[in-house]
Amino acid sequence: MIAANEIKTKGVSSIEEALREHSEAMITVRGKEKYVVMRVEDYQHLREAELDAALWESRQDVENKAYKTQSIAEHIQELFD
What we know:
single chain, alpha+beta, 2 domains, three-stranded mixed sheet, elongated
């Protein structure tokens, strides 16, 4: 964990130091965990995994016919009902 005050005094080097030992680092503000920082490569890997999961879920919906076919007007009406 990195305190926000440490980032103020040490700058990015405090983040780099934390990421040498861990794949992610928590930043605390007033003693409470508030932010997570990680390397861009790790973030991209995480996003890719999220997109893969969303694609799998969508394919399951299609396979199980868990979707609606409707016009734009019907869809908008449903949103406001």
